[in-house]
Amino acid sequence: MSTVLAIFLFLISIFLLLARRKSTKKLPPGSLGIPIIGQSLGLLRAMRANTAEKWLEQRIQKYGPISKLSLFGKPTVFLHGHAANKLIFSSDGSTIAAKQTKSIRMILGDRSILELSGDDHQRVRNALMMFLKPESLKQYVGKMEEEIRMHLEMHWQGKQHVTVLPLMKILTFNIICSLLFGVERGARRDKLKDCFQQMIEGMWSVPVNLPFTRYNRSLKASKKVQNMIKQLIHEKRAGLKNEGASPHQDLITCLLSIRNKDGEEVITEKEIVHNVMVVMIAGHDTSSVLITFILRFLANEPPIYEAVLQEQEEIARSKSSGEFLTWEDLAKMKYTWRVALETLRVVPPIFGGFRKTVKDIEFDGYIIPKGWQIFWSSPMTHMDNNIYPNPAKFDPSRFENQASVPPYCFVAFGGGPRMCPGNEFARIETLVTIHYLVTRFTWKLCADNSFSRDPMPVPTRGLPVQIMQMKPL
């Protein structure tokens, strides 16, 4: 009996010791604020006023590099810096999962690549890469170039003034419809565009589903977009079955064509719908913002503009009249792409993102509880003077040797195993568009350099410019 009592007392002491050790591990400093609302409205207001970096810097000054808050209805921990990025982007899903805010998840769906982890994430990512890998995209350069030429003839040729961002959104949406969906110009494309625009407006919003909220309007628009994509899937599945259509027509036919050893589709219809929506947003908003801000920086930086112009004119001179660009031409646009990367560093289209803890994890002496969100922000790394000297200066030479940029310090495309699968698509779209803009037009800004975020960067008045037609080479 005494032996049993001794063992019991020993176990109790061990339990108390472990409990005491756990209790010494504390939550990060900060406040969760008002339930549901938390600090969401404060962050959104700061983003629209283009003071979000200052808003986060004030948190850092008050609480340090890690703090707790509540964003979009969930308790959240804000992290920043190289070590934080490594923790977030290198996770294999066993400690930190890719869970977006409720507003994003409800609008874009729960089977997108943004939400999946482990084997499901790898399966869907591999399927998307069948279309988005460089070897596959080579065959679509000409189709993309046709859309860009047509766009410039319709919206730029013969004009004296244009507003860049709305036009770039039109261009990137048309490229998406052509290459990803095979939807030609017309009423169907116009309807899809209207619903899509309304859908993305509520992605970063407080998830209150009432009739007057942006979130509610976005949910309704999302349902319409999903129904249109489902209709496209049914049509393309029938085309593959009955007409022997090529599996390389567009992204949807490519995904439908991927089969396992038993001849079954690898990607479910729901996964196709949700991931097509994610690719739509990535290819539309991020690319249109990137191209718009490249034009703004080129207008403000004459030496950089001259270097880009020289590189693009050399390529243009090597082509006969009307000849299309080749994959080899794109490979020569090294300086232009460095300008694009520096634009992404200074004005990243994606301000930040979210993850979710799968279990309690410890970071910097604090516990981040299981089920909490982790919020990271691109500018807090991109504008860090310890990583990028004189970070406010626009300097494409930072990317002459990309290996010199420390890992997880340039996160415009994310990082690690969840690196954006569409970065090559964005590179081609950007380079071809800039080639035609700089070799056909010159421009002068008609507004100041300020911008807001909603949640993507939006320059003042959409970046109105005065344009002049260049003489043919």
UniProtKB/TrEMBL annotation:
Membrane topology classification: Single-pass membrane protein
Chief location bin: membrane
Gene Ontology CC, one term: membrane
Organism: Ficus carica (Common fig)
Recorded superkingdom: Eukaryota
Family: Belongs to the cytochrome P450 family.
InterPro entries: Cyt_P450 (IPR001128), Cyt_P450_CS (IPR017972), Cyt_P450_E_grp-I (IPR002401), Cyt_P450_sf (IPR036396)
Gene3D superfamilies, per the entry: Cytochrome P450 (1.10.630.10)
A biological process term (GO) from this entry: sterol metabolic process
Protein name: Cytochrome P450
